[in-house]
Structure formats: structure tokens, C-alpha cells
Design a protein that fits this description.
The chain has helices at about 30-35, 90-105, 115-120, 125-135, 140-150, 155-180, 190-220, 230-240, 275-280, 285, 290-300, 315-325, 345-350, 365-375, 390-415, 420-435, 445-450; strands spanning about 5-10, 15-25, 35-40, 50-60, 60-70, 80-90, 105-110, 220-225, 250, 255-265, 265-270, 300-305, 325-335, 355. It is an alpha/beta fold. The protein has a seven-stranded mixed sheet. It has a seven-stranded mixed sheet with strand order 9-10-11-8-12-13-14, sandwiched between helices. It binds guanosine-5'-diphosphate. Guanosine-5'-diphosphate binds next to helix 8.
Amino acid sequence: MSCSDTIAAISTALSNSGISIIRVSGEDAISKIDNIYKGKKNLTDVDSHTINYGHIYDNDKLIDEVLVSVFKAPNTFTRENVVEINCHGGIYVTKKILEIVISNGVRLAEPGEFTKRAFLNGRIDLSRAESVMDIISSNNKYALDASVRQLEGSVYNEVKLLRDKIIYEVAYIESALDDPEHYSLDDYSDRLNEVVGDLQLRINTLIKDSDNGMLLKNGINTAIVGKPNVGKSSLLNVLAKKEKSIVTDIPGTTRDIIEEQINLHGIVLNIIDTAGIRDSENVVEKIGVDKSFTAIDEADFIIYVVDSSIPLDDNDLKIIEKLHDKKYICLLNKSDLASNVDEDKLNSLIDSQVISISAKEGQGIDRLEDTIKNLFFDGDIDVNNEVIITSLRHKELLCKCVDSLKLVEKSLNDNMPEDFYSIDLMDAYRYLGLIIGEEVEDDLVEEIFSKFCMGK
Ligand code: GDP
């Protein structure tokens, strides 16, 4: 598949800045831009991978002094001819040049279309194409590292390895059915059972880690709950100030809005339900243990705050009861004041960590950060040496792949005929293929011919 028309877009942020880049890709990219460019040489005559000084004209009117990079297919990002116009970074001039490019018969690119072409023209697989967007949108170190690794092919290589194992077995079965003289299926079911077991083990690990991967990428939806005046907003302020929170209005996955993002050494907490915390004027909001209940339901992670200077009461017990099947920690705040909480009792009620802090004096906050790392990532976030799945789409396909492998196991246990195994193995193979965007049609034939000599 390839795309025939030539596309253009402004590739840099549209703001007044030193330089802006307008990127053009397609068969006619060089000749089209040559029509509006004057320099020492025509762009159609320059070497590939060169930067050329000249001027952009709108008919006879000089528009800007520019540097134009020319990259000839196929060694380019899209595998097509690519031209990049480096113009002055004013919004007006950049838009004007884009306009002139478009009026020369070039189409405005859709969002992501350059990367899409890179994929369609076979330069990168689908998982790598997705990672380009992830890199652009990553807001923390770990998310960026995981995306860069994906761009380097970590997901592709892993998926390829798994697929190779599956297609080998399908090819073997097909060959044996076709040529029983040379390929025996005696005792084959034991071998296949083992292979399918190993595959499931590996894929299940990827699936299990993907929850962390997605949390790394998207942030952990976190609720700070507790009775009024225990110090919830003080805590939020300490965390926000310390780590320079990025205050944004990002629609959350729940009905609530994520109102604040806090970056704790690279782990992003999306704080939800801040209304009940921030709005100290609104007594009704402040009272709500009910409010805490809703927040607990909707969050991935709960920070439960207790005021250590006053004894626990029924409201605390009600909140604690709701916490048990969630990931949470309990902060015993106001450690700078004399304690009036029965800590033994609290510890016996809480089946997670209890950490003593003082939001007012900033004490214990480092321990809070370490504890969160431990809770979510076993304290060890090592995206550089592992394949981390950070995409829901990938995770869902891995789950479907495991389902198909389970069906193979079932057929094996039920002593079904061999072609039953092939059907489900091929499904598993196909689901993995969808992760990296590979067609399957010719793969089996290729495998059979490369590994097995059919019809000897
Ligand atoms: P919220 O209603 O749970 O959000 O509680 P606030 O953060 O508004 O705090 C209630 C009161 O407790 C305020 O007067 C805070 O200054 C005070 N406070 C919060 N944290 C601490 C702390 O660690 N030590 C002390 N002594 N006071 C605190």
C-alpha cells in the first residue's frame, strides 16, 4: 500500500519562535517546493540529504529567507521524498508559507499522517508508529523511556519472537499432515503442550506488567480521602509545590475531572475529586464521608489521611471498611502535634502501610514517595531492560492471544485432530500480528518453504 498524493504540515509548535519547519512528503514533494523556491540550484538538482539556502516566493513576491532540507526516497522518515522548509518562526509567515505550499497542489496532512505513511510504506511497524505519538505526549521520564524503547523495537522484537514460535508449530503440523512419511506427529502433543504453556507464561507476564506500564504512561488516578480538617489539602499543596505540579484540566477516565497532576520522581499521580478537598468554604462538600466513598470507588490508588491529634471515630471506621480491596496507604498526619490516635488499633485495622507525616512541616513525604513506588512497581522501575506494554490496544490483543492458546490446550487435552490446533494457533498468531500491524497471509507459506521441504 502506498499513498500517491503529496502532503504538508507545520511540524513545529505554532508560536512566535526562532525557526518553524514545514514538512512536505510525497512523490512530488521536491518538484512542488521547487516551484516556490529560488536558490543557487533547483531543488530537483540538489543531492539527497542536503540543506539548501534560498528564498520562498509567492509568485513574484518574496516571502521569506529559508533553509530547505531535501531528502530523497527511500531513506526518509516516510520512505517518500521529503522536503523540510526551515523558515522564520513567526506564526504569520509560517502559515503563509504553508498556504503557498498548499496552493501549489499539495494537500494538508491529517494528524499523524507522516507517521502513518512511515508505517504503510514499511519503514516502521505499527507498535513503533504508535510509540511516536507516545513520545510526543509523554509527561514523565518512565513514560518517555518506555516509548523510546518501543520506538527502538522492544515490543516489535518480543512479538516477533512469540510469533516465530507459533508459526513454526503451525508449519510443522501442516507439513506433517501433508507428508506423514517425513514428519511424525507421534508424541507431538506433548511438545506442543509445552510450547503453548511457555508462550502463555511469557504473554501473561507481559499482560500483568502492562497494568503498570499503562499507569506509568497515563498516571495513577489517585484520591486523597479522609474526614474534614485532617490535612488533605495541606498534603496536596506540599506535594504540588514540591514537585511543581502541572495543573491541567484533563478529562479523567471516570466522571470526574483530573484536576491536578503531581509528578513524584517520575510517577504521575492524577489527583481526582479535588473539589471536596479544595473547596473549604463549602461545608456540605467538606463533611462528606459520602464524597470519600465515591472517590474510593473511582480511584486506582487512595491516600487516606488521618489526623493523629484526634481519636479515630465512626467515620474513620466507615472509610477504612471501604478501603480493603483497594490499593491505598494511610497517612497519619500532624505528627508534629501530640498523638491522640490509638496507633495499635489503627495498625490492626489497616492492611496497608501507615506512614507518619506532617504536611505542615513537610516531614515523611519522602517515605510516602518510596512507598508508592513499592506499591505499584515493586520499588523497581526498570523500563530499560524490559519490554513494557503501555497500550491498552496491545494488552487486549495479548489477552485474545492467550485465549486462543488456551483453546489449543483444550484441544490437546480433548485429543482433537491436529488441524484443530492449527486453527487456534493461527488465531493467536494473527492477534499478535495486529499489535505490530503485520499481514499474515503469506507468512505460513514462507515458513513452510523455508523450514520444511514439502512433498519430498
Ligand atoms: P482538609 O480539610 O482535610 O483539607 O484539611 P486542611 O489541609 O485544610 O487542614 C486543616 C487544618 O489542619 C489547617 O488549619 C492546617 O493548617 C492544619 N494542618 C494540616 N496539616 C497539618 C500538620 O501536619 N500539622 C499541623 N499542626 N497542622 C496541620
